Amino acid sequence: MIVGTAGHIDHGKTALVRALTGVDCDRLKEEKVRGITIDLGFAYLPLDDGSILGFIDVPGHERFVHTMVAGASGIDFALLVVAADDGVMPQTLEHLAILDLLRIARGLIAITKADLATPARLAEVSAQIRAATAGTTLEGAEILPVASTTGQGIDALRDRLAAEARAAGERADDGRFRLAVDRVFTLAGIGVVVTGTVLSGVVRVKDQVMLSPSGLGARVRSLHAQNREVEQGRAGDRCALNLAGEGIAKDAIHRGDMVVDPFLHAPTERIDARLHLLPGETRPLGQWFPARLHHGAVEVGARIVLLEGEQLLPGGTADVQLVLSRPMAAAALDRFVLRDVSAQRTIGGGDLLDLRAPSRQRRTAEREAQRAALAIVDPQEAFAALLDAPPFVSDLSAFARDRALSAAKVDDMAAAISPVVFPVGEQRIAISQKHWQRFVAGVVECVQAFHAANPDLQGMGREKLRLASQPRLPAAAFALALQHADLAGRVVRDGAFVRLPGHSLQLSPEREASWRLIAPLLGGDARFCPPRVRDIAGTLKRPEHDIRQLMTFAARLGLVDEVAHDHFFVRATMHEMALIAAELAARAAEGRFTAAQFRDRLGIGRKVAIQILEFFDRQGVTLNHGTLRRIQARYLDLFGPVP
């Protein structure tokens, strides 16, 4: 169990930890000279059952409240310290507010310097404490008088802390690994060491980890948990990790960074959150209010965008968007604290909800429903609610990453919810069974309606069908959905079109005979630059109008595609050219190729090469960036053979 001190400056927090553990947490020279705690201090107390109590001693001076928040973010148990001579003071109240905002629900209150106070004074201070803690997470917490200099009450306090540690048990470690860095230093012969509290998961020697938000990869060479060398650290442990890897140096790592399972590395700088404004604030909070955001051990500038109303009244709670001045690592449902930009007071705090918040359309009913789902603590219930909120599809992998869920936990969730899942790259696009059935019925009805309105067309364009379908799936997931067993027998993918199985256009015997004459002219060595309508008409000595009508009908059948006016390519050639473009992209730097490279590969003129690429642009097969193009692999099958 990690115990964190809290309280006003000079109320004896460090002396109390020293009396409990024998360790002086003031390690800095300036701390010794000035007699106050400036940075976080750490101490450990072995217990009779072999477990260890860890202590984080925080500064009480108002100038160092940001450091106090960094320490409080990693504790299990609060030890609020109030001096008998001063009683409740300004930083007592601010520290108490921070503990409440961080929802540190377990704690004790120690009245220090009790040897210098009369029973009446102790009763008076106890009454002050009861009034101050009313309505907070420490309301009703036990109050123990102690004196660090004489030892009065120290044994009783130590015994109470040991009992709390035994009652608490161990934190669940079924999440993925995260550690909030609060110190970075180097040791001779060892290298770079970072310390912090493990927020979730397990870390082991030789594990590959990542520093976030920087993205530096590292290997855990050795580790200490609760001041002992061990092979693994787990959620709730106070750990020191010896890290090694390219770019790993003391200057490359900062307080506030996270050491994480590489799967979790996805920094954010725009977060939807639920914010509670402290009732002691003197004025409402308005749009784009500037503040300092504290999360874990990081402090970062933030602008607050209200998602409900135009102001948030003191004591009120509302959904907001936090627009950060720089990226940070976080997990959904992490707690945060806000302080004013002058660092003079704590103004509020709350829960992070959506780490991938949009910059536009923040206030829609759709976004409100999504935030309500994401606010649910139980991940299974939250994801089920998310799938039942517009747009009724969600990325299961992203949800698992942002909640730091283990692979086993995600598998259990998926088995319980039983959504239809489409793997698309690193994504797992999920849709609930209820909305999947609605999607299937909608696709079939849409294609039926299209055929009724357009009986002489081959089928409905795949992208047009996707945009008309609800729920609307991402393009790559939609392509996979059309191959699902529930749809495979009810609609047919026909290149870039989708049709019903019984719908087909047929060439008349006369047109069939003409097509047999034309098809050889479009293939063979001339396939990359086939003759145009007028050239075909001249070769066959047929009216140009008749050839154009036949080619247009052949395009409806999916036999050819009209790349440019009167310039038709057979479908197999289109597929071949798309694969050639993909091959060029795969070999090119950053996956981008030029029109000249495409032209040379096909052995054709520049004008025709540009026409082909512009056609691919319109179909979504390629994306044009000035003189360079890249492939959108999910559209490569538009001209492929019908499965």
UniProtKB/TrEMBL annotation:
SUPFAM superfamilies xref list: EF-Tu/eEF-1alpha/eIF2-gamma C-terminal domain, P-loop containing nucleoside triphosphate hydrolases, Translation proteins, Winged helix' DNA-binding domain
Domain of life: Bacteria
KW Disulfide bond (keyword) present: no
Coarse class of the protein's main subcellular location: cytoplasm
One Pfam family matching this protein: GTP_EFTU_D2
Localization (cell): Cytoplasm
NCBIfam families: selB
Function: Translation factor necessary for the incorporation of selenocysteine into proteins. It probably replaces EF-Tu for the insertion of selenocysteine directed by the UGA codon. SelB binds GTP and GDP.
Protein name: Selenocysteine-specific elongation factor
Biological source species: Dyella halodurans
